[in-house]
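Fill in residues.
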């Protein structure tokens, strides 16, 4: 088998056929993410950026934007937007006719993360270079709100969405109750973000699917392996994510370089919040 065939089987085909992740592309994307994270860190440190609480807060709108844009694509791919017949239909007709959000490499995982990542790097770099520090965050927040408004007419499974938020918030609050102070800014958000991802997966697959006959599936290799280990439930996945997040905070607190440990904490937040928000919104929209 030549390289072209391997690339097609492990990278192109999973996207085209909506097959999700496999061990090969999972490891490859992870390596790319690590290298990209290192280069981004060096770029911003060269600019003199401090990875403090303010920086972490400014990144959050980009995470929400990427997840929400991804769900707009999901709503088109699954036919949810096309099936809508309410007052918002003219807006949906314009979106569908534009083909901007049609399923493609740049609008689905992992392409959407590269697109939002590049957008974040450019706008935040400009923000700090021009000393207009909140410019990028405000722009990302405005675009997030715009895309969220686009999705609002599709909201149907609100009760299950609320359950996800309540469970994740309870875990985050419980952790904060046990550990109120930390040398890591927003240390509770590290745990909450991972809990949100785990709760979204658990509620969707264990509760929603079984109670409504839903057909949502898990596409990540590790999560499926944990589900198989746990007898089909995603509860081990949820528990492991929360424990790992809490453990990572504990380890990072012992590091002396505040920029390095805060940046790693930010990456953990991103890796939890991005899929968590996407899965939450997708379930709520029923797409």
């Amino acid at each position: 088998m030549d390289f072209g065939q391997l690339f097609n089987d492990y990278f192109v085909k999973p996207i085209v056929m909506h097959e999700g992740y496999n061990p090969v592309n999972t490891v490859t994307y992870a390596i790319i993410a690590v290298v990209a994270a290192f280069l981004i860190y060096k770029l911003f440190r060269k600019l003199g950026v401090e990875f403090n609480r303010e920086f972490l807060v400014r990144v959050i709108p980009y995470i929400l934007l990427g997840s929400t844009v991804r769900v707009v694509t999901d709503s088109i791919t699954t036919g949810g937007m096309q099936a809508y017949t309410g007052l918002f239909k003219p807006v949906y007709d314009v979106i569908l006719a534009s083909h901007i959000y049609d399923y493609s490499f740049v609008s689905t995982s992992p392409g959407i993360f590269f697109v939002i990542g590049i957008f974040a790097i450019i706008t935040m770099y400009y923000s700090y270079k021009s000393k207009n520090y909140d410019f990028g965050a405000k722009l990302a927040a405005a675009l997030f709100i715009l895309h969220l408004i686009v999705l609002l007419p599709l909201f149907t499974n609100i009760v299950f969405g609320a359950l996800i938020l309540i469970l994740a918030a309870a875990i985050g609050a419980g952790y904060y109750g046990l550990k109120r102070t930390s040398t890591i800014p927003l240390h509770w958000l590290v745990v909450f973000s991972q809990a949100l991802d785990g709760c979204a997966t658990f509620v969707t697959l264990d509760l929603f699917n079984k109670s409504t006959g839903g057909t949502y599936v898990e596409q990540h290799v590790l999560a499926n392996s944990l589900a198989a280990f746990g007898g089909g439930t995603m509860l081990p996945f949820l528990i492991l994510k929360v424990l790992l997040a809490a453990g990572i905070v504990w380890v990072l607190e012992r590091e002396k370089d505040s920029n390095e440990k805060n940046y790693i904490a930010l990456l953990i937040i991103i890796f939890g919040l991005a899929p968590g928000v996407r899965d939450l919104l997708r379930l709520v929209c029923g797409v």
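The chain has a mean pLDDT of 91.
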